[in-house]
Amino acid sequence: MALWKNGAFVDDAWREIAEGEDPPPAGHVILPLDWWEQERDAFEGSNAPLGLRVAPGVPIERFARDINRFALIELVFPKFGDGRAFSMARLLRERHGFRGELRATGDVLIDQIQMMARCGFDTFQISDATTERLLRERGAPAYKRFYQPGATPEAPVDSRPWARRPG
Amino acid sequence: MRAGPMHYAISANRLRDGIVVFLGAGGAWVEQLAQAAAYPEKEQAEAALEGARGDEKRNLVVEAFVFPVRQSPAGLVADHIRDAIRAAGPSVYRDHGKQAETR
Amino acid sequence: MYRYDEFDAAFVADRVSAFRDQVSRRLSGDMTEEQFRPHRLMNGLYLQLHAYMLRVAVPYGTLNARQMHKLAHIARVYDKGFGHFTTRQNIQYNWPALSDVPAILDELASVEMHAIQTSGNCIRNVTADHFAGAAADEIEDPRPYAEILRQWSSIHPEFTFLPRKFKIAVNGADWDRAAIQVHDIGYQIVRNEAGEVGFAVYVGGGLGRTPMIARKLRDFLPKADLLAYTQAIVRVYNLEGRRDNKYKARIKILVHEKGVDPMREAVEAEFAAASREFISLPASEIARIKSYFAPPALQARAACDAYEARRQTDPRFAAFAANNVHPHRVAGHGVVTISLKPIGGVPGDATAAQMDAVADLAARYGHDEIRVSHEQNLVLPHVALDDLPAIYDELAANGLATANAGLISDIIACPGLDYCALATARSIPIAQRISERFGEGERARDIGELKIKISGCINACGHHHVGHIGILGLERKGVETYQITLGGSGDETCSLGTLTGPGFSSEEVVDAIERIVNVYMSVRTDRSEDFLAAYRRVGMQPFKEALYETSKGADI
Predict the structure, then answer these.
(1) Which of A167, C7, C75, C280 could be cross-linked to C224 through a Cys-Cys bond (beta carbons 3.0 to 4.6 Å apart)?
(2) Does residue B45 belong to any structural domain of this protein?
(3) Chain B residues whose beta carbon lies within 8 Å of the beta carbon of residue C48
C-alpha cells in the first residue's frame, strides 16, 4: 500500500480503523460510516482530525450534515469497473463543498488516476503493484485536453463551453 | 461427423494477432486442429491446460480453454458447432480463416 | 459535416499514443490481459471467435469520401479486403492483428476518425437519422446535437465506468428512423407551442434479453439544457443502476424497477441541483456547430429529363428508383440508399473496392457526403435525380445496385456464430437463404415493406425484437434453433415483437418465414396495407395456425 499525492508517493498520516476497534483520541483515523453513526457522540467537543470511509452506493445525504467535521473522506472503488465513486466525488466537491482530502482507495489503477483527479480526488491509495511501479517510473498520465469541465481548475477552450484545458 | 469417441483438445488465441491456435502434442501452439493433441480423458486435458496457462502468463496466448473433439477419418473434428467454426473460419466466407489454408 | 479543429485532432492523437503505449506494455508483458482488456475495449478492440475485431466509430453515421477511401485502405492493408457496417452506424474489421492496431488508429486519425468508446461501459457512438439534413419531414438536423453529445461524452471522467454500456440516439424528423425508443436515451427534436425547438426526452429503452420501450421523461427540453439534462440522467444511472448482475445493469432495468415517476423525480432533482454548477449550451455555440452541417446549396429542379427517360425505358432502373430513392427536401433531388444486402450476400459487408466506388460517387455526385444507416446500408443523401442514371450504372458495376431497400431481402443480421464469441447460432446464413428465397424482383416488390431482423443470441444485436419479423438464433442440445417474433417495430409506433411459439430448425426456418409471408399476402386488404399494418389488424392467430398446424403433417 502506498499513498500517491501531487505527483509523488508520500507518507500516510492516517490510519484505518476497523469495525469495532477503539480509535485513539488523537485522531488521524479513518472511521467507517456505520461506526461514525453509532459513536458520533463520543467525539462531541473533540477537535481531533477525523476521516470517514464511505462505501459506493451510500447516498451522500446520509452524512452530508457531518461533512465539515471530516478532514478526509475516503471513497472506495471495489473494482476498477465500479464507477460510482466518480459521481460521489463530484457531488461532494461541487454540490456539498467538501474541501478536505478526498481519497480514492480500492482498485485504483494508473489509467484511472487522472479521471479520479478530475472528479475531485486528491490522494490515491495504491495497492496494485504494476500501478505503483509505473507511477514511480513515469508518474500518472497527464492529458491536457478534455471535453467536459472537471472539478480541478481548467480553462475553457475556444468558444466550446464544454471543452477544457488545465488552468 | 460424430465419428470416434470423445476426446479433449486445448485452444486459445495468439496474443499478437489474435489467431486461433491449438496446443500440439509437444507443447507448442499449432494453427490447425488436425495437429492438436487430443486427450482421451478430460482430467488429462485439464492438466495440460494448467501448462498452457503458463503461456498465458508468458503473454504468448490468451483465453485458453478445453473443448471436446472426436477422431474422424479426416482427422480431429470439434464436437460443438462453435468450436468447429472456430477451427475452420466463418461458414459464410470459405476463403477466410483456417479453411482457406487447408483447401 | 463536422471538421476537427486543432483541439479535436490533438485529443485523438493523445489517445492513440496512449493506446500505442498500452499495446506495447501488453505485448511486453507489463500488463496482464485482465488489466489490458478495459483499454482495448475503450478503443473498440474485441477478441472474437477467430481473431481480434476492431470497431471504428462513424459518428451519427456520417462520412466523407476521404474517410470512406481510408476505410477501404484499412480493409485492404490490415484486413481481408472487407469491412462490416453495423447497426450502430459503425464499421467493424474482423481480422486485425493487435500489433497493427496502433497503426490503424493513426490512419483513422489522419482522416478525423477514431475507435474511442465503441465498446466498454461508457457512452457509445451517438446515432442519428441516416437521412438527417436531407429528408423532407425534418424539423431540424439532429447531427449538431449528436456531435455536441459526442464531444462532451468523450473520455468523460465521471461516466467511463458506468454499470453497463449507454446508447444515445437523436432524431429530427416526424418519422423516427433512428429507433430512439429502444435507446438508453432517445432525444426527439420537437417544436413546442411557443414555436421553440427542443427535445422530447425518452429514457430506458433497449433490446437485449429484456427488451423495453423507453419512457418519456420530458415533453420539452430546451436546447440549452441538453448537456446538463444528459448529465443528470447519466449520473442518476451511475449512482443507482444495478451492478450486481450485468444482465440487469442497463438503465432500462433501473427505470423499470424504480418506476418512471420516481426516475423522473430523481433526474429532475439532480438536474435542478446541478444546473447552477454546470454548463449550459449557448445559442452561439449551437450555431457554430450547426454551421458545419449546413446543407449543400441545391437548386430545385422542376424537370428531370434524364432521370425520367431512363425510368421509362429501364425497368431495373425504375425499380431501383422506386425502392432505393427517398424524397429529398429539395425538388429534383433524392436520398439514395445503397443496399449492402445483395441477394445471397452478407448483410452489411462491403469490399474495399465497393467502399472506394461509393466514395468516388459521393465525391462526384453527392456533395462529398455518405451515411451509414443502422439498417446496415449506405446512403448518398444529396443526389440530383438527373445524376441517378450514372450513379446507378456505377453501383451496378460494383454489385451495389440491389433494388431492395425496405423490402424483405433488406435484412439486418448480427455477425452471429460465424464471428461472434457470444453468439449461440449463426445469423448470416439464415439472412442469405431468406434473401435468395424472395429476391429483389416482382415478388419481393409485391410483398412490399417488410423488415426482417436476425440476432444470433439473446443480446439482440440484430434488433430482432423490433423486426416486423424477428428471428432469434439459439442453441438447443448442440443444434441451432430459431425462434420467430412478429409485429415488432423500431419507428415512432415502437412495439416489441411477439413470439409465435416453438422454434424452428435451420432447415425449417426459411419455409416458416415463407408461410408467414403467405398468410400476410392472403389477409392484407390490398397492397397499401403493409405487413406490420396487417399484423396489427389481424393479430397473431392466423400466422400461428399456418406455422404450427402445417408442421404437424398437414400440407401448406
Answers:
(1) C280
(2) yes
(3) 18
If one counts every other C-beta atom within 10 angstroms of the C-beta of residue C298, the result is 17
Spell out a b/e string for C203-228, using b for 16 or more CB atoms within 10 Å of the CB, else e. bbbbbbeebbbbbebbeebebbbbbb
Using alpha carbons, list the distances in angstroms from residue C334 to A31, C329, C387, C475: 68, 8, 10, 44
Number of domains in chain A: 1
How many CB pairs lie under 8 A apart between chains B and C?
74
CB contact under 8 A, C157 and A150: yes
Say which of B13, B59, B85 has its CB closest to residue C47: B13
The number of domains in chain B is: 1
Residue A166 falls within a domain, yes or no? Answer: no
Interface test with A, best of C14, C22, C158 (most A CBs within 10 A): C158
User: How far, in Å, CA of C378 to CA of C425, rounded?
Assistant: 27
A165 assigned to some structural domain: no
Q: Which of C152, C238, C274 sits opposite A83 (nearest CB)?
A: C238
Structural domain harbouring B63:
6-102
A54 part of contact set with chain C, CB < 8 Å: no
Phi, psi of C356 (to 5 degrees): -60, -40
Nearest CA in chain C to A162: C152
Given an 8 Å threshold on Cβ–Cβ distance, is A148 in contact with C156? yes
Q: Domain of residue A85: give its range.
A: 2-142
Closest to C465 in 3D by CA, of C187, C188, C209, C175 = C209
| B80 within a domain of the structure (yes/no) | yes
Q: In b/e form, how buried is each residue of C379-390, taking b as 16+ CB within 10 angstroms? A: bbbbbbbbbbbe
Residue B90 located in a structural domain: yes
| CATH number assigned to the domain comprising residue A55 | 3.20.20.70
> What is the distance in angstroms between the Cα of C78 and the nearest Cα belonging to chain A?
28
The Cα–Cα gap between C44 and A9 comes to 33
| Domains in chain C with CATH codes | 6-109 (3.90.480.20), 135-290 (3.30.413.10), 305-397 (3.90.480.20), 412-550 (3.30.413.10)
Q: How far is CA A143 from CA A33, A111, C526, in A?
A: 34, 11, 62
pLDDT tens digit at each of 556 positions of chain C: 999 999 999 999 999 999 999 999 999 988 889 889 988 999 999 999 999 999 999 999 999 999 999 999 999 999 999 999 999 899 999 999 999 999 999 999 999 999 999 999 999 999 999 999 999 889 999 999 999 999 999 999 999 999 999 999 999 999 999 999 999 999 999 999 999 999 999 999 999 999 999 999 999 999 999 999 999 999 999 999 999 999 999 999 999 999 999 999 999 999 999 865 567 899 999 999 999 999 999 999 988 999 999 999 999 999 999 999 999 999 999 999 999 999 999 999 999 999 999 999 999 999 999 999 999 999 999 999 999 999 999 999 999 999 999 999 999 999 999 999 999 999 999 999 999 999 999 999 999 999 999 999 999 999 999 999 999 999 999 899 999 999 999 999 999 999 999 999 999 999 999 999 999 999 999 999 999 999 999 999 999 999 997 555 444 3
**List of chain C residues whose C-beta atoms are within 8 Å of the C-beta of residue B19:** 50-51
CA dihedral (A38, A42, A48, A53) in degrees, to 10, reads -10
Beta-carbon separation of B85 and C95 below 8 A: no
Instruction: Pick the residue of C50, C341, C506 with the most B CBs within 10 A to test the interface with B by mutation.
Output: C50
Neighbours of chain A (3+ CB pairs under 8 A): C
- Contacts of residue C322, Cβ cutoff 8 Å, sequence gap at least 6: C403, C445
Contact between A81 and C285 using a beta-carbon 8 Å cutoff: no
Interface membership of A127 toward C (CB under 8 Å): no
C26 touches chain B (CB under 8 A): yes
